[in-house]
Amino acid sequence: MKIYEDVYAYAGKILRIDLSSGEYFTEPTLKYVKEWLGAPGIAIKILYDELKPWVTPYDPSNKLIFGSGALIGTLAPGANKMNVSTLGPMTGGWASSCSDSYVGGQLKYAGFDSIVISGKAHKPIYLFINDNHIEIKDASHLWGKTTWQTLELIRKELNDPGLHIISIGPAGENLVRGACIIQDESRAFGRCGTGAVMGSKNLKALVAKGSGSIKVAKKEEFMKSVREVLKMYKKAKSPDKTYKYGTLYNFHTKQDVCGINYKNFQYLALPEDMVKEMDPRKVIDKFEVSHRSFPACGIHGCGRYLNINKGPYAGLKSECNQWETFSTLQTRLAIKEPTFMVKANALCNQLGIDVDAVGGAIGWAMECYQRGIINDKDTGGIKLNWGDEKVVLKLIEMIAYRQGFGNILSEGSYRASEIIGRNSSYYALHIKGQDLYEVCRGALGFCLGTTTSTRGGGHTTGAVACETSPGLDIEKARVMYGVDNPNKPLEYDGKAEMTFYIEILHRINNCLGICHINTVWWDIDLIGLPQIAILYSAATGWETSVEKLNEMAMRQLNLEKAFNLKFTDFERKDDMPTPRDLYESIPTGKLKGWRMDEKKFNKMLDEYYVIHGWNKKTGYPTRDTLARLGLDYVADDLGKIGKLGKNR
Amino acid sequence: MNTDVKKTKVGIIFDMPECGGCRTCEIACSFHHRGDFSPLNSSLKILDKKDRKGFNVLIINKSSKNNPVCDGCIDIDTPLCVQFCNEKEKLQEMIEAAKVVKEKSEK
Ligand code: SF4
Ligand code: SF4
Question: Looking at ligand 2, which atom is closest to the CA of residue B73?
Fold first, then answer.
């Protein structure tokens, strides 16, 4: 019997490797993809089915799953985002992150769509996948090294200066809750603490190198479609700006719409006198050496390599950070030195720690210090004043190595506030235990997608981005979302529908490996589900409609939800904004005085649950909904633990 | 024409300050030769320049194990690599130049 049928777009195999025994085997990708599409879709199915309810994130029986989406390795625009998913330590539930990656392509050229890693190695190791040759290699000499050192040492050791790897730094080794996984030097699988799970398995790095190929079923049609959709990137307005400044190009818009985190979300716009001084685009203008990009990006890259040759960080050479680091570390902690963002970002990448996890924890600590809730005794004498960049850099190191006060902060703001107590939890801005970077006040679609996200906060699994976009083609957006107010961030109506749409798009993107910034999420004039369906159909040879993609995305979302219900106590209240976002009005800026309306938010959340076919009161999926998606067995499971949604 | 040119055993290295390093050209070229995507099997290689602007582009003109020789995509109007590059004219110039060097050395 032939187990591995010919398959297009996919590489065809899933590698299962147990680090405790060192044994591995493969299974056909085809076993999953007709229902679960790819990378995180495959991962949620495996994790839900195979993890017993008593498994905890650092338990050797937890599984860490790397996945490379169906279009990665081809010329489909933006198809280079690799995924990692697991039971994560930040929320205690579904953890899933994507990162721009060369490793993703290499993995597929080596013949694998996903790698499912279970068990725990007896000593530090790294995995080297070289086509069919799978090697578990000693990493004792790499343990303790930064991700940058690890990259250099592995390239030397394997005698290949062009090799791409993903690795963890000291933070992951030390099970820092917000530890992340870094691809090469500067792209992160952020949020969720997947780096700590990798550390718990004694897995320092993953190296993939492939000499094989990815085939598409309908060559001519596929290439024709790619050429056709690439024209959209020439016509749309955002690609040139993204190409020049990455997501930092949005600086003035963010200031205008109150979308900047200043002093731990106390303010959502910068003081006017700081705006000029802090414009992050100037750093790029001044220090750019070269562009950085990933294969097949329709924008041709959002990255820039900088050589900081002036100022306090002179000598630093690194890829420039994107917007997230600017807002979550630089402005959140009120730091004025413009190059700080590059330094802090580089340090977090070297240590393998998520910028939002440290920004959240340090932001909470600084605000508590401002209010006299914590003092020098708690911090071991460190003064936590806003804007003190030296202290911030020191704290980042202390977090990664779990030293002194850093040990408390390494748990993230939510848990740190539980440890300190003293009513400090109000200043811990998190969703489901995961530190927030997202500014939720003033943009209700962005907020709803963030608070309901199954991975706990995060704006890449449902948060709407277009509502505050200047120059949005409103007619086009109306048609796409099926609402008449897609450009009204302060209106509650229609946000459930918009979030629903983006939840689908984000999942399809993640399963196929497409970067969100290459799609209608970011810019309504770029590719969306109809184009993606055409590319996927031509690549696989399976005629796949948008409706079919929608159904797969919803199946995945429902299983993510059920996975969380199995492993956590999340309920409706965990889909609500933080108390600060719910009750405080915006203090300064163009939206000064605007405040969320709790009643209206609850109504919007009701609508959100109803659209999904979930119980309005609890947010639990109902049997009907699950059955429609072929998830009857999940309904049975939820019934047994009393978490099956009633139909009304 | 680009002046910073270096010959190696397998091909010619051009300096391309405008190159953003996306390596999409490698994927496209492999499709030209094989009809599938396999960047290792490409007639051009994008090489890091460390701390200088852009990247180096190696265009293969002697065949070896994984490296098919660049044929200039003579069967189509615009070379496939160029079609997918952000700096079309620059890359096109290099493909042309590589052709000239190859023809000369064959004489
Ligand atoms: S496609 Fe163009 S920009 Fe991209 S790596 Fe190749 S030559 Fe450079
Ligand atoms: S012109 Fe040469 S390098 Fe470019 S795609 Fe054709 S064969 Fe490859």
Answer: 6
